[in-house]
Write a structure and sequence with these properties.
By secondary structure, the chain is α/β, with parallel strands linked by helices. The protein has 14 helices and 20 strands.
């Protein structure tokens, strides 16, 4: 009879007391999926017909690998006695245990689980969720008999869209394998890290070569994948170029008359809208700081995001937004003119106006940013961030008063399928607004003038 072998991480994972919830974090290739399958197997063996397990991924496509893992594990233990309904994605084990492999991408998907009860909830690849609200909602489904402990297990690799909230909630609370209280769930958790270096079931040299070839120009992302490093900014899109010590400037009192300025706007209603006042240096000192010619400063921002969710807007109308933009401009004694997302200029029907037309009627004047392709814009933005602090190159500087920028942009993740691009599922609205303003600038061979 074949036996189930475990690596050290999987043994330690199974040794965590059942009354504790678990965050299984770390690098790629550490054996998390097999460890999760073993947790499910043990739970069903212990509690049999009372065991109801829900394993969640963001997409059905993401379930396929784990389905194969469960086929391997359950096949070794139960043979043909374990029955899998591929259409419903449900395992029924001979001991009466119930295991469902489910998908959850939106609040509409949650309707499939509303009112149902599970004793063990496992969320895999949680880093694909830019915000935790859906996963928090799932906790309401955790209930069972008095003699069956309920438990939530979350697994993720660093570097995804949810990197920041996961690191803040689970990683930087206590050291690895040490229990800590998590305030949102009001539960005790344990951070259980893993790396491929501790997984003797794979060809570790070959796997490292694969990781290195996946991100040849991003040592920070490689470190996140190899070492499981969740330190703030590791694996983030702007990690290698954005540094608070050189890119952040103290809030200004006024914009010098010799500087050019313009607005940069990313529109949103259900999603946040972000507007920046951007100023460009003629090559001069301001408040004892020298800004080389062509340098750009994000002087102030207006962001319509909820405080508890940077990816959700306040639902403002265009008219309300325009009034607030004008108030911001009045404080700085600048005209409400600049560039906006090209989509603001799309007309929605015959004789219908655009969002830009609504702004114009309200006294805010935008022209299309003509943003070109995303990669070009991000490359230009990264270069200006990187050049900040140099005396002979124009850089990009951001006021410390731009709260939304500093609370979102440093933590935005790369697109896992297109590493040159930013993952658009995260709160990228501030980054987009900045990119629009810079792309207008990038096409000008000489210094732009926006004083209409």
């Amino acid at each position: 009879m074949q036996t189930l072998e475990l690596n050290e991480f999987q043994e330690n994972l199974l040794a965590i007391p059942e009354q504790l919830d678990v965050f299984a974090g770390g690098g790629r290739g550490g054996g998390k999926s097999y460890g999760l399958a073993m947790l499910i197997l043990r739970h069903c063996e212990q509690y049999q017909e009372a065991a109801r397990v829900l394993y969640i991924r963001k997409s059905y496509a993401g379930l396929r690998d784990f389905e194969l893992t469960t086929r391997e594990v359950f096949g070794l233990v139960y043979g043909t006695s374990a029955r899998y309904n591929a259409q419903e994605h449900v395992w029924k084990l001979p001991n009466g245990g119930y295991v469902e492999l489910g998908q959850l991408e939106s609040h509409a998907d949650y309707a499939k689980y509303q009112g149902r009860s599970f004793t063990l909830l496992i969320v895999d690849e949680a880093g694909q969720y830019a915000q935790p609200d859906l996963l928090d909602l799932l906790r309401s489904n955790m209930r069972g008999p008095k003699d069956v402990p309920i438990r939530m297990v979350v697994a993720a690799n660093p570097g995804g869209p949810g990197h920041h909230w996961i690191a803040k909630r689970y990683v930087f609370q206590a050291g690895p394998w040490k229990p800590f209280h998590e305030s949102r769930s009001k539960r005790t958790w344990v951070y259980a890290p893993s790396t491929f270096a501790g997984n003797h079931f794979i060809d570790r040299d070959q796997y490292r070569e694969q990781l290195e070839s996946s991100c040849p120009s991003d040592p920070e992302l490689l470190r996140a994948w190899v070492d499981g490093d969740w330190a703030v900014n590791r694996g983030a899109y702007f990690a290698s170029v954005l540094d608070e010590s050189k890119n952040a400037v103290d809030p200004w009192k006024a914009i010098p008359e010799s500087w050019d300025y313009w607005l940069a706007h990313d529109f949103g209603s259900a999603a946040p809208s972000v507007t920046y006042i951007m100023a460009q240096s003629p090559g001069d000192y301001h408040e004892d700081v020298f800004y080389p010619r062509g340098s750009v400063v994000l002087v102030d921002e207006l962001a319509t995001a909820r405080k508890d969710n940077p990816n959700q807007g306040l639902g403002w109308t265009t008219a309300t937004m325009a009034e607030e933009i004008k108030k911001m401009c009045e404080r700085w004694d600048v005209k409400p003119r600049g560039v906006a997302d090209d989509a603001c200029f799309a007309r929605t029907g015959f004789n219908a106006g655009s969002i830009a037309d609504e702004f114009t009627r309200a006294g805010v004047y935008f022209e299309p940013a003509k943003k070109a392709d995303r990669i070009t814009g991000w490359s230009f933005m990264r270069r200006m961030l990187s050049d900040a602090g140099q005396v002979d190159k124009p850089g990009l500087y951001i006021s410390r008063g731009c709260d939304y920028f500093w609370s979102t942009v440093p933590y935005l993740a790369r697109d896992q399928k297109r590493v040159e691009d930013l993952d658009s599922t995260g709160p990228d609205h501030g980054a987009d607004a900045c990119r629009y303003g810079l792309m207008k600038l990038s096409r000008q061979a000489s210094v732009m003038t926006f004083r209409w």
